[in-house]
Amino acid sequence: MGKKAGHAPLMEALIRYRDKENASFHVPGHKNGQVYEHEDIASLLQEVMSIDATEITGLDDLHHPEDVIREGQELAAKCFGAEESFWLVGGSTVGNLAMILTVCTRPGDILLVQRNVHKSVLNGLMLSGAAAVFLEPEIDTLSGLAVAPSTDTVKAALKAYPSAKGVLLTLPNYYGMGYDLKTTAKVCHAAHVPLLVDEAHGAHYGLHSRLPASALSCGADIVVQSTHKMLPAMTMGAMLHVQGERVQRELLRQRLAMVQSSSPSYPLMASLDLARWHIDVHGEEAFTKGLAAVDAFRKGLEQLPRFRLVEPTRQAKRGEEAHKDSSEGLEGERTSEYSTQDPFKIVLYDTLGVLDGFGLKHELETYGCIPEMSDEKHVVLLFTLGSTARDASHLLQALVHINDDIRFKKAAGEPGSMELEQHGLDYDFSTWNNDRMTAYSNPVEFGLQPISPEQIEVVPVEDSAGRIAAEMIIPYPPGIPLLYAGEKITEANALRMGRLRELGAKWQGVADESMLTIRVFRLE
User: Fold this and answer.
1) CATH code for the domain defined by 9-283
2) Fewer CB within a 10 Å sphere, N or C end of the chain?
3) How many other CB atoms are found less than 10 A from the CB of residue 480?
4) CB contact at 8 A, 84 and 249
5) Alpha helical stretches, state H, 52-150
6) Which residues are CB-neighbours of 493 under 8 A, at least 6 positions away?
7) The model scores a pTM over 0.85
8) CA nearest 480: which of 438, 433, 440, 437?
């Protein structure tokens, strides 16, 4: 660690700002929190407000950094292995928007995009007026979950669309699943296009020997990371990293200025500075406690063979030995390229099929364990460098109680209770559209032209197969659109929407929050 890396330049500048107690004649209007001086209800926020400053002398400017923000971003670039890093105050969402707007500069520009992407990627396509060639992701044959397109799919699509401006992938996925991107990066570069990676869930990758390699180290040209997800920045704190000559840096700065606030939050930026500082100061030790906690959980779970984890085949085989009495079969073809798993992501399921993912999530919540998300089968639980052995013990105890709960023991013996287990790989275990499509689609044009009410009609979800969706359907989390406006609704889509509705999934972007109906284009 260099001498400078032990500093957090913006955080230190804000502490000096607070300690001087100068009279504020600038925004924000709370005046360092003094407007709430005698209000108990504001006491939690008052300390944060004492550094909630603006672009005054000594605190630099995110959109024209020359001082402490510039130094903080340079230290971030060095820490995360980038040539240049940019702090994001609108989460990975603004990073995804900016990188698409940088690469796709003219309406109709083609971008190769894996279909199971975050909604912000589709919004970026709309803003840029680009045309997306959607790439089919590989489906992990053991779990049924979508990962990312194979290198062969990327290569074939690049050959079919040599004018493509770039390739955008999302790795790891929400479940922590992924694979090594080196070969994919080489294929992209051989075709003279940049590889763009939404690495929102992998900000910690490459920072410890037990973690998968980062997208940057694999050769990606632009990478967006949510520093607030798996590293200790505040919510909405993210970074965009860039390297190489395939991306117009000046245009990227311009795009970031377009999509980011002109009044960025200083506490939020300071948390990005602090997260980088924490990693630089503590190195791999920063992850020791968290990894020990998740290891303790995995070891304890071996005593509860009813619950199992999604893992790459190699790890699953080890798990098979530890769960010899489990009824889960591991035989069969395993052709998925899924080969890396974030050790901090616990993707848990009930092998008896008594509790689906939403049900297991609900039961865990009743014991004070709050998961990140669930789908029809799985519950996703995050450990991070901030997790403790007590957290692991709490979660294990909750699972012991659920395992011993007489309600679920009875249900396990009832006819049909093994339905999920028996359906195996034919069942859809994802909030995303797992339908097999061709390896890559024809170009799909995106834009901002609104849909007029005369073009729309409302139909029951159960009757929507074969129609064209007129709204985006987004189970949230994870925020991956199951349908976008203009996409044909398949029978499987309609069934999945109904099933997710019955299981209690949350939705974004829908006109009917009950999801009994869906907006579709009128038939001509």
Assistant:
1) 3.40.640.10
2) C
3) 23
4) yes
5) 68-80, 91-103, 119-128
6) 433, 435, 464, 465, 482, 483
7) yes
8) 433
Indicate the length of the chain as a whole number: 524
Closest Cα to residue 185, out of 160, 204, 161, 213? 213
Sole residue written with tokens 């050959």: 159
* Confidence (pLDDT) at 18: 97
Residue 118: predicted pLDDT: 94
Q: What secondary structure does DSSP assign to 405-426, as a single string?
A: -HHHHHHHHSTTTTHHHHHGGG
Q: Please give the pLDDT value at position 179.
A: 94
Q: Specify the pLDDT at position 331.
A: 36
Fold of domain 287-312+337-411: Aspartate Aminotransferase, domain 1 (3.90.1150)
- Token duo for residue 203: 């900000």
Backbone angles phi, psi at 404, to 5 degrees: -90, -5
- How is residue 183 annotated by DSSP? H
pLDDT of 413 reads 54
Asked if 317 contacts 330 with a C-beta cutoff of 8 angstroms, the reply is yes
How is residue 342 written in tokens? 């974030």
Q: Domain-by-domain residue ranges, the chain? A: 9-283, 287-312+337-411, 451-521
Task: Note the pLDDT of residue 5.
Answer: 83
The ranges of the chain with pLDDT < 50 are: 322-336, 416-427
Instruction: Quote the pLDDT of residue 477.
Output: 79
CATH code that applies to domain 451-521:
3.90.105.10
What does DSSP assign to residue 92?
Answer: H
Pairing of strands 195-198, 238-242: unpaired
